[in-house]
Amino acid sequence: MKDLKHLYYFEKLLEDANNELVRTSQAQGKKCVATACENVPEPLLNLPGTFSVRLRAPRTGSIEMATYYTTSFLCEYTRALLERAMEGGFNFTDCLIVPDGCSMLNRCAENMELLRTMPKDHFFHEYMEIPMKADDNGLALYKVQCQNHILNPLHEKFGIDISDAAIRRAVTQHNRVCDLIRQIGEYRKEEYPRITGYEFHIITMVTYAAPKDLLIEKLEETLEELKTREPDAKKPYRARVVLVGSEVDDVDVVRLIEDCGAYVCADRFCYGSFPGRDPIGLTDDEDALTQICRQYMYRGQCPRYMNQDKIQERRRYVDRLALEYRADGIIYQQVKFCDPWAYERMVGTQVLREDYHYPVLSIDRPYTTGNSGQLRTRVQAFMESVELKKLQGGVK
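^ thats the sequence. predicted structure below, dont judge the formating
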């Protein structure tokens, strides 16, 4: 297929946390609000005068210093973030808002604060408590936490407008980005897709790593370009897979999987489009903050939520994605030492195999995959097993 016009530009943006668009927005006087978890509602971080970035550590090398300050049993994602912070890689940020999504993320953020890794005089840290159960009590807690640890500090420290009208404007921008990502992602349903999973992952990732208002025009152009893009005449994959699990911000993970003959047709992972790029519907009969919190809580697929309805829904959600995107199998992954997703992956793998009858590859992986020979071998073997089951008529 012909290269997408803006793909190289998007790839370059992902090479550095302090990318070109981040610098442009800060030059315009906007404050950079950093976070590190999907449980922090994005629209509340993108009010007039602010923009959000989800922290990543691209091109991570050694994480020895972060391991020294924490432990080798902390997940590599959080250690990589701490290492990058100590290197000065997040000095451009103006504040950090993290939830207690897991104890590892808490420890990472606490070390960033104690070591004073972000040196700006006005810099502040905020820690949110996230409900473990999706119900009315959980919603009340969530709303209070968002008010006290996102909206109030942004208003008090930076004078940001946190009115209902300002929040609704932020939701409008958020929804425009989500709508574009959804429309682009629809082309993954085609038998001969006109966009690869790798390309889609890059495009989605950029919407987490750069100011959204500066991306909309290029996303619109990419969508128009895809409408007339000619797919490969030969089917470019051996099987279609849904990639599920913990955060994936290393684009080489998807590239490696697709190099093995799999087509990543849908994504249910942190930094992915499901459910992270679901639009937020607002009505006029209730305040915007309550509606945002309710939708984030009930649609969330994070193993942080422990009530049985949410646990079972996480498996049904993957099944719906697999059916809608005509997947032949599922790759269930987690970053090494990620406790919440380790338990979820172990049980979810068995349920999806035994109850939903999908071929499932279950893996834990390092934060930066690169050209992992072991992972490549396992994906290739999985592709062979999926093809065999397809020939035997055993795949859904």
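The chain is about 45% helix and 10% strand.
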